[in-house]
Amino acid sequence: MSKEIKVQDDSLRLNQDYRHFLTDIKARLQKAQIRAALAANSELIQFYWELGTELNEKQKSHRWGTGFLEQFSHHMREAFPEMQGFSISNLQRMKKFAALYPSFSITAQAVPNYHGDILYG
């Protein structure tokens, strides 16, 4: 039961200022959506690196064997069933990632200016 919004005044649709305003708002929204996606992606990458580092440290200092990853994978998948990424092979990749990059930080990513191009439908 959605309400249909009708434009009462066709002159508003044709008004140059209104078209620029609408284009600007659309572009700013798209840019904000891209920034949010990039921020979420950066946070997850940072988390995976930190988890890989912690897994390496725990396995080394506590001498936990390979069964540790299996158990940890099971518990994480059970706690977060909607998430993917906690398989044993992914956990091993996180450990390798952390080992390959002992000091890791994500730099700010530039957001392109699309000048009103439609990115999302």
UniProtKB/TrEMBL annotation:
It comes from the Bacteria. Signal peptide: none annotated. Residues 24-111 form the YhcG N-terminal domain. It holds the Pfam family DUF1016_N. PANTHER family: BLR8175 PROTEIN, UNCHARACTERIZED PROTEIN YHCG-RELATED. This is Phage related protein. It comes from Legionella donaldsonii.
